[in-house]
């Protein structure tokens, strides 16, 4: 019975995230330009431009509608966005990127709060709670890196 209440709580949290973030842009994605994973076809030009002047691989913002790039459920996790590259964004693209960051920051926080409530009710163990906290913390750090890139990128005319 307790598992059903946890499942119901998690489903409600995910649905509320969908309502909060409905209507936000989906034409932005993060290309994780990592040599180990290879480049996705849509990311190839962006990654090539982002990494041609550096000796390391860095992530880049993709402004387009490729589902392979845009459907990452946790785009703020998995790689550091410290050296994020924004390639020639339009004014609308910059706003979509800001909304993208905010949407996924809210999602990470809501997922963590759902795990926190489940942990306080002893529905999940401490290992799962610690893992959820690490995921949330990584997403928040990458949100800050993304906002720094957003604020320091020259405004398009």
Could you characterize the architecture of this molecule?
- The protein has helices spanning 2-21, 44-51, 67-70, 91-120, 126-152, and strands at 28-31, 60-63, 85-86.
- By secondary structure, it is mostly helical.
- It has one domain.
- A three-stranded mixed sheet has the order 1-2-3.
Poorly predicted ranges = 17-25
Radius of gyration based on Cα positions: 17 Å
> Which shape, going by the Cα principal axes?
elongated
Record the strand order, biggest sheet: 1-2-3
Query: Helical percent range?
Result: 55-70%
Give the domain tally.
Answer: 1
Number of helices: 5
Counted beta strands: 3
User: Strand-residue fraction?
Assistant: 5-15%
Counting helices, strands and paired strands, the structural category is mainly alpha
* Average predicted local confidence, pLDDT: 83
Distance between the termini: 58 Å
> Would you list the SSEs in sequence order as H and E?
HEHEHEHH
* Assembly state: single chain
